[in-house]
Amino acid sequence: MEPPLKVPDPQTAEGLLLDAATLNPGAWVDHSRHVALAARHIAAAHPHLDPARAYTLGLLHDIGRRTGPNRDRHLLDGYDFLTALDHTDARIALTHAFVILDMDTLQGDWDGTPQEWQRLEGLVNSAQQTDEDRLIQLCDMLGLADGFCTVEERLMDIALRYTFNARTPDKWRAKLALKAEFDRECGGNVYRLLPGLVERLLA
């Protein structure tokens, strides 16, 4: 198992996100903030996760969008950006997109070079998952730009923007299973941990 990620403090992560937002403004910034908030709330109810670390990882998971507009190329750009910082590890920029560690599960056309694809594939194949990686994978499914959402709502959001491929059903099943795992680990439905989500669903 991989050792715990070295991460900056939340204030530093906020600054990195703000800087990225000036380079590439867009809905991804508020999405990242909601992912971070979801991660903090769920980590607080989890027996083995640290809320401050979870919040930081949520803020940074999509930091590769700073070079955008981009698509899955942001995974490699985020990895390279975080690798260049001396106070953090970079794995979260990759693993948040791979609830199944398989390049075939990426949706949409690759927007980098063939060489970059091969490099990303090598990094993905060598990655190992921790509870923190799994948490951010889940929370990436729980945040839209305008607030918290269900996994199903987020899956539809992604499918409408990136279309489907042959591995999409496998990916959906894996993400729904991931949510069920965190429900068990947190002692109840994690939707109840996200302020306002249940109320919106019942309205």
General description of the model:
- This protein has 203 residues and is mainly alpha-helical.
- The protein has one domain.
- It is 58% helix and 2% strand.
- The protein contains 10 helices and 2 strands; from the N terminus they run αααααααββααα.
- The longest helix is centred in the N-terminal third of the chain and has 19 residues, at 27-45.
- The termini are far apart.
- The mean pLDDT is 94.
**Could you give the count of β-strands?**
2
For the sheet with most strands, the description reads: 2 strands, antiparallel
Which strands sit side by side, in order, in the main sheet?
1-2
Query: For the CA atoms, what is the radius of gyration?
Result: 16 Å
Shape: globular
Tell me the fraction of residues in β-strands, as a range.
under 5%
Number of helices: 10
Quaternary structure annotation: single chain
Distance between the termini: 43 Å
Short descriptors:
mainly alpha; 203 residues; globular; two-stranded antiparallel ribbon
